[in-house]
Amino acid sequence: MERNRYLFIVVCISFLTVLFSPGIMKNVRGEEGKPTVEKKAGETSTKDKFSKEKEDFKRRAKERLDVLDKKIDELEAKTKEIGSKAKAEVKQEMNELKVKRAELNRDMNNLEAKSKSKWEKAKQKIQDAEDKLEEAYNKVRAKVTSD
C-alpha cells in the first residue's frame, strides 16, 4: 500500500513536469514550444494596425505643431513692430500662447506611454489642445495685424 502511494506521487510529479515544460518536449506536429499563428501575405495584426495608427497620428500632430511653431515665431517678430500700448497686451497673450504650446508638447511626450484603451481619450486631448493653440494664435495674430 505504501509503495503504491509513492508510485502515484512519482507519476503525478512526472506528469506535471511534462505538462508545464513545453520546451523539453515537442508538440504533436514536431514543432518546439507553442504553435504559432501564421500571417497571410499582406495581413497585419491588430497590434500592428494600432502601432501604425499611433505613429501616423503622432507624425501628423508633429507636422501641425511645426507649422504652428513657425507661425508663432513670425508673429513674435511682428509684435516688435507694433505700438507700446498694444505691445504689452500682445506680449501677455504671446506668453499664454507659449505656455499652451509647452503643455501640448508635454502631452505629446506622454502619448508614448498610453495603452490602447486610453489612446482615443489621449488622442482627442491632443487634437483639442492643438485646436485651442491655433485659436489662440489666430486671436493674437488678429490683434497684431490690426494695429
What would the keywords be for this entry?
4 helices, rod-shaped, mainly alpha, 147 residues
Sheet-strand content, in percent, reads under 5%
Average pLDDT, rounded to a whole number, is 77
In N-to-C order, the SSE pattern is HHHH
In terms of quaternary structure, the protein is single chain
Which residues sit in consecutive blocks of at least 5 with pLDDT less than 50? none
Major sheet = none
Radius of gyration equals 30 Å
Number of helices: 4
Give the class from helix and strand content and strand pairing.
mainly alpha
Distance between the termini: 104 Å
User: How many strand segments?
Assistant: 0
- Categorize the overall geometry: rod-shaped
What percentage of residues falls in helices of 4 or more residues? over 70%
Question: How would you portray this structure in words?
Answer:
With 147 residues, this protein is an all-alpha fold. The protein has a domain at 46-146. It is 75% helix and 0% strand. Helix 2 runs parallel beside helix 4 (116-146) and helix 3 packs antiparallel against helix 4.
